[in-house]
Write a structure and sequence with these properties.
The protein is an alpha/beta fold. The chain has three domains: 72 residues; 175 residues, Spore Coat Polysaccharide Biosynthesis Protein SpsA, Chain A, CATH 3.90.550.10; 79 residues, no CATH class. It has ten helices and eleven strands. The strands form two sheets. Strands 1, 2, 3, 4, 5, 6, 7, 8 and 11 form a nine-stranded mixed β-sheet that branches. Strands 9-10 form a two-stranded antiparallel sheet. Strand 2, helix 5 and strand 3 form a beta-alpha-beta unit. The model has no long low-confidence stretch (mean pLDDT 90).
Length: 363
C-alpha cells in the first residue's frame, strides 16, 4: 500500500473547504489542558491553605524550640502560622474572588415612602461605598450622616443624595453613634453603616414593625459579602438590632468596641437581612477585626477581666470548629474555611491581647 504525500497547497485547499478544521482541533486540545491546570491550581491552593499553616506552627513551636518559651512562644508560633495562612488565602482570593455586582442584589424600593423613619450613619472617607448605601435609604423621611473629617468626596456625595450631613470630631464608635442618634427627629430610627445596603425584604419588615404598636425594636440578620459573594443561605447569620424607637435606645459610652444600642422594650426578630460589604476583601476583614480585637481587649482590661492561658491555647481550634460546623460556613467550601479561620483568629486575638494588656498596664 502506498500513500500519496499531501502538499501544503492541498492541505490549505482541504482546510478552506471545511474538511480539515485545525482551529477546532487546536481549541479542543487546549480546552482540557486549561481545565486541568485550573483544577490542579485549585487543588494546590486548597492543600496549601489546609496544611502549610499547620506545618509552620509545628516548625516554630517544636523544631525551633518556642515550646520552651511558654505562652509567649505559643502565641508567636500561632502568629507565624496565621501569616502563612494569609499568604495562601490571598492567593486563593486572587484567582477566585468575584467583583461585587450591585445590580445582582436586592435593594430597597425607593418609591415606597416612610414618613416616620430616620436613618443615621457615621462616616469617614467612604466615597467608594456611600452612594450604594444611601441609594437604599431614599425612601426614609430623614437620613442623617455624621462625618468625622473625610478628606475625599464622601460629604459631597451624601449631600447630593439628600442626606443631612453634620460634622462631629471622632471620640470613639459609641460616642459617634450616640451623637448621630441624637440628631434624628422621627420616633423610629435605623442605624446603618456606609458599607451596607437595605434589601427589599428588610424594608418591608421595617415598615411592618413600625406599624405594630407592641414592638420597640427589630433585630435583623447581617449577610456579609466575602470575595464578591454573600454568605450562603444555609449559614447561621449574625443578628443585629438596627431599628428601634428613638427614646428606647441608647449607646453605652463606657464601651470601646461595641456600637450597638441598648434597647428597652419588646423586640421583634426577622429572617430578613441587610448586605454588608466591609468584609469583602481579606485585607479589609483582617484589618477591621484586628482593630476590634484591640479595642475589645482594652475594654475587658479596664473592666478588670482576667486573662486565661487555657483560653489562649484552645480558642482558635474551638472557634474554627464552631464556625465551620455550628455556623455552617463549611457549606461554602474553601471560601467558608478561609472566612471561618479569620474569625477564629479574631477570637484568639482578643484573648492574647487581653494577656498583653495585663502585663503592659499592670502598674
Amino acid at each position: 500500500m502506498s500513500f500519496k504525500k499531501v502538499s501544503s497547497k492541498d492541505f490549505d485547499s482541504l482546510r478552506s473547504k471545511g474538511l480539515f478544521d485545525t482551529d477546532s482541533a487546536r481549541n479542543q486540545s487546549i480546552q482540557p489542558n486549561k481545565e486541568m491546570k485550573a483544577n490542579l491550581r485549585y487543588l494546590r491552593l486548597y492543600l496549601n491553605i489546609l496544611f502549610l499553616p499547620a506545618f509552620e506552627f509545628i516548625k516554630w513551636y517544636l523544631f525551633k524550640g518556642f515550646l520552651l518559651k511558654g505562652i509567649d512562644g505559643f502565641v508567636f508560633a500561632v502568629q507565624q502560622s496565621y501569616s502563612k495562612f494569609l499568604i495562601q488565602a490571598k492567593s486563593f482570593e486572587y484567582f477566585y474572588a468575584e467583583p461585587i455586582d450591585v445590580n445582582r442584589f436586592s435593594k430597597a424600593d425607593t418609591s415606597i415612602k416612610s414618613s416616620h423613619l430616620s436613618i443615621y450613619m457615621i462616616v469617614k472617607n467612604e466615597e467608594q461605598t456611600i452612594e450604594t448605601a444611601l441609594s437604599t435609604t431614599l425612601w426614609a423621611d430623614e437620613v442623617v450622616v455624621v462625618d468625622s473629617g473625610s478628606s475625599d468626596s464622601t460629604v459631597d456625595k451624601a449631600k447630593e443624595l439628600g442626606a443631612t450631613v453634620l460634622f462631629n470630631a471622632w471620640q470613639g464608635f459609641p460616642h459617634q453613634k450616640q451623637y448621630a442618634l441624637e440628631q434624628c427627629h422621627n420616633d423610629w430610627v435605623y442605624s446603618m453603616d456606609a458599607d451596607e445596603w437595605i434589601t427589599l425584604d428588610l424594608q418591608s419588615e421595617i415598615i411592618k414593625t413600625m406599624q405594630q404598636d407592641q414592638y420597640t425594636s427589630l433585630r435583623c440578620l447581617r449577610n456579609d459579602l466575602f470575595m464578591g459573594k454573600p454568605l450562603s443561605g444555609l449559614c447561621k447569620l449574625p443578628h443585629n438590632n438596627r431599628l428601634f424607637i428613638r427614646n428606647s435606645g441608647k449607646y453605652d459610652l463606657t464601651e470601646l468596641s461595641h456600637e450597638n444600642p441598648k434597647v428597652h422594650g419588646r423586640e421583634r426578630k426577622t429572617s430578613a437581612f441587610f448586605y454588608h460589604t466591609g468584609y469583602n476583601q481579606i485585607t479589609k476583614l483582617v484589618d477591621k477585626l484586628s482593630l476590634y480585637a484591640n479595642l475589645k481587649a482594652k475594654e475587658r482590661h479596664l473592666a478588670n477581666k482576667k486573662y486565661s492561658k487555657l483560653k489562649i491555647i484552645i480558642k482558635f481550634p474551638v472557634m474554627l470548629l464552631k464556625n465551620l460546623i455550628i455556623n455552617r460556613y463549611i457549606v461554602m467550601g474553601m471560601r467558608g474555611f478561609v472566612f471561618s479561620a479569620i474569625y477564629a483568629y479574631y477570637a484568639f486575638q482578643k484573648e492574647y491581647m487581653l494577656f498583653e494588656n495585663y502585663f503592659t498596664n499592670r502598674d
